[in-house]
C-alpha cells in the first residue's frame, strides 16, 4: 500500500513513519483484530522521496508492505489429511487379494474420491494459468498415484486369472517375474529357494515307475494265459491315459500357480514403488511450502 499526496508537496505535508519499540519501521497494529483465515507475517514500511521536473519541491511517499498468510489448519484437517489417508488406502489396495473380487472396485472408488477433493480445491482457488497452488500440486500428485494404481491393479488381475489354455509364459517373463524380482524383493515361495536371482525347486519328486512294455505277439499254448496278458495290457493302456490326464492337470495347475505368483510379485513391487513415490512426493511438497501446517 502506497500513501502520498499529488496535491501538496513535501514542504506542505511531510509524511513520516514512527518507529516501534525495537526501532523498526512497521505498521501500527494496536487496533488490529485477529482474523481466523489470514495471519499477518510482517508489515514492513519504507519512506521514499521523489523529485519531478516540474517542481523543485520533494514529494514523499510511504509504502507499507503487508505480508499475509492463509491459515492452513482448516485445509489440513479437511483436505490434506483425508487425501493422505486415501492415498494410503490406494497403496494398501496392492495388499488386497485378487480372489476377493473387490480390488478394482476399491481402486476406482479411491480415484473418484480424489477427483472429488480436487474439484473442491479448484473451486476454492482463483483460476490462473501462471502459477499452480501448492495444494493443487498435492492433489494432482495424489490423483496421479491413484490413477497409476488403477492401471497396475488391472495388470495384476490380468496376470492372476491367466490360464494355460489362453496364455503361455515366455522365458523372459518367467525369468523376470518368477526369479529376478522375487529375489530382489526378498519374497519367499513354498517349495522354492532363491539363490542369487536363481530359483531352486525343493519339492520332493516321486520317481516314476519304469515303463512296462508288453508284447502282443505272445505265443502260448494256454489260451487263458493269453487272455490274462491281453487284459493286463488293456488295463495298462487305460492307466497310462489316466496318468497322462492327471499329469496334464498337475501341469496346468502348476502354470496357474506360476501366474498367480507372478501377479503377487507385481503387487509387491507396486506396493514398494508407490510407497516410496508417495513418501518422496509428500516430503518434497512439504519442503517446498513456506511453512508447515500450523
UniProtKB/TrEMBL annotation:
Keywords on record: Membrane, Transmembrane, Transmembrane helix
Main location: membrane
Localisation: Membrane
Domain of life: Eukaryota
Organism lineage: Eukaryota, Metazoa, Ecdysozoa, Nematoda, Chromadorea
Organism annotation: Caenorhabditis angaria
Entry's transmembrane regions: 73-92, 104-122, 134-159, 269-293
Name of the protein described by the UniProt record: Neurotransmitter-gated ion-channel transmembrane domain-containing protein
UniProt xrefs under InterPro entries: Neur_chan_lig-bd (IPR006202), Neur_chan_lig-bd_sf (IPR036734), Neur_channel (IPR006201), Neuro-gated_channel_TM_sf (IPR036719), Neuro_actylchol_rec (IPR038050), Neurotrans-gated_channel_TM (IPR006029)
GO cellular component annotations of the record: membrane
Residue ranges of every copy of the Neurotransmitter-gated ion-channel transmembrane domain listed in the record: 79-281
Amino acid at each position: 500500500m502506497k500513501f502520498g499526496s499529488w496535491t501538496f508537496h513535501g514542504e506542505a505535508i511531510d509524511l513520516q513513519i514512527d518507529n516501534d519499540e525495537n526501532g523498526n519501521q512497521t505498521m501500527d497494529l494496536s487496533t488490529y483484530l485477529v482474523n481466523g483465515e489470514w495471519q499477518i507475517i510482517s508489515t514492513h514500511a519504507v519512506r521514499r522521496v521523489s523529485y519531478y521536473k516540474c517542481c523543485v519541491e520533494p514529494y514523499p511517499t510511504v509504502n507499507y508492505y503487508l505480508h499475509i498468510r492463509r491459515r492452513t489448519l482448516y485445509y489440513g484437517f479437511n483436505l490434506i489429511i483425508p487425501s493422505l489417508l486415501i492415498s494410503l488406502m490406494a497403496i494398501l489396495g496392492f495388499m488386497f487379494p485378487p480372489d476377493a473380487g473387490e480390488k478394482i472396485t476399491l481402486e476406482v472408488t479411491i480415484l473418484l474420491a480424489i477427483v472429488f477433493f480436487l474439484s473442491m480445491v479448484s473451486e476454492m482457488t482463483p483460476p490462473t494459468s501462471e502459477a499452480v497452488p501448492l495444494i493443487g500440486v498435492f492433489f494432482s500428485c495424489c490423483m496421479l498415484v491413484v490413477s497409476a494404481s488403477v492401471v497396475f491393479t488391472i495388470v495384476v488381475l490380468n496376470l492372476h486369472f491367466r490360464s494355460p489354455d489362453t496364455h503361455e509364459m515366455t522365458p523372459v517373463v518367467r525369468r523376470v517375474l518368477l526369479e529376478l524380482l522375487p529375489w530382489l524383493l526378498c519374497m519367499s515361495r513354498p517349495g522354492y529357494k532363491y539363490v542369487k536371482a536363481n530359483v531352486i525347486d525343493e519339492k520332493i519328486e516321486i520317481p516314476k515307475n519304469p515303463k512296462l512294455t508288453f508284447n502282443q505277439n505272445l505265443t502260448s499254448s494256454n489260451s487263458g494265459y493269453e487272455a490274462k496278458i491281453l487284459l493286463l495290457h488293456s488295463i495298462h493302456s487305460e492307466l497310462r491315459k489316466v496318468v497322462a490326464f492327471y499329469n496334464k492337470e498337475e501341469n496346468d495347475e502348476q502354470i496357474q500357480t506360476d501366474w498367480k505368483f507372478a501377479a503377487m510379485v507385481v503387487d509387491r513391487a507396486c506396493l514398494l514403488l508407490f510407497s516410496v513415490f508417495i513418501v518422496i512426493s509428500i516430503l518434497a511438497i512439504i519442503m517446498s511450502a513456506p511453512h508447515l501446517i500450523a
